[in-house]
Amino acid sequence: MFNAQYFRTFITLVETGSFTRTARRLEMTQPGVSQHVRKLELYLGKPLLDRQGRRFVLTEAGRRAYDYALKLFAEHEQFRHSLDDESLDSGECRLASPGSVGLMLYPFILGQQQMHTGLTVSYSFAFNHEIVTDVLAGRHDLGIVTEAVRHPDIECEAWHQEPLCLVVPADFAGTGLADLMGIGFISYSDGVNHAGVLLRHNFPAEFRSMSHFPRQGFTNEVSMVLDAVARGLGFTVVSRLVLETSPWQRQVKELSLPHPVHETLYLVTRRGSRMPRRYTRLLEAFREHRRHERYGHGELPVPEAGERLG
Question: Does the UniProt entry include the keyword Transcription regulation (predicted)?
């Protein structure tokens, strides 16, 4: 007979790698854990573990059972949370974004949680492709990505825009493309794309390719890239969200450019799912917060043609 608790015990066993730790985490006895695994094996008709003394490895059936169990409980959690989709101020928020967005969005949502104690927040920092995979698997209700997604099971819509900033060391005295080539480029995951678009719009007669710039370094963590710039090792191009939350913002400066370029952020959800109203309220509140920070309480300017990225 199907028993969800057997699958839960099996997931925990795989994640801990130990019958003892599984028993401790689930507040069970070790024989009880073994019994759950045996009953699950009996139910599935396949051995799930290749036991080697006190250690074990998963069989092929065990790996497939683990993947199925993760999907099973992800769908269960999504169903459970969907029952509370009408509440604005309570329920769990499960979302993910790249670090460039989460550096400011995550603290903002935590502030909302402090005001509305019925909210709980599960926030993951990840790359775009990881976010899409996790939304499809039901591990997140909502993802925020920096590139439009085309997938038959994903709904993707443009949500928000942030300016891209050309950031140089605080003592940088240059103004042109040749000066930037002189100090070189510090890159990150989206760095080459962002820099290429911004420089192409502002130096159309001179800019050819980012490959012409000396590469001074790379980090896969966008929140750290301004550390290298602050040390005088080169320049970079980041979202204003990154610049405004950076601990090195006093050791760098934004180089003023005549033609602004904006990065577009997209919301991704599983096709056919209904996003709970609490997400809509949080997302709108954040956009309003950013609007007031950047423009005060006046009317929001409309970006001119050519300002968008993506």
Answer: yes
Contact 32, 45 (CB under 8 A): no
Beta-bridged to residue 253, according to DSSP, are 168
Prediction pTM value: 0.68
CB atoms within 10 A of CB 278: 24
Q: Where are the alpha helices (DSSP H) in the chain?
A: 4-16, 19-26, 30-44, 60-82, 99-115, 128-136, 177-183, 191-202, 225-230, 240-245, 277-295
Read off the DSSP letter of residue 190: T
pLDDT in tens, 7-56: 999 999 998 989 999 999 999 999 999 999 999 999 999 999 998 877 89
**Cβ neighbours, 10 Å, residue 172:** 18
Looking at domain 91-161+263-295, its CATH architecture is 3-Layer(aba) Sandwich (3.40)
Nearest to 5 by CA among 35, 47, 45: 35
Helix (H) or strand (E) holding 50: strand 49-52
Residue bearing tokens 């290749």: 50
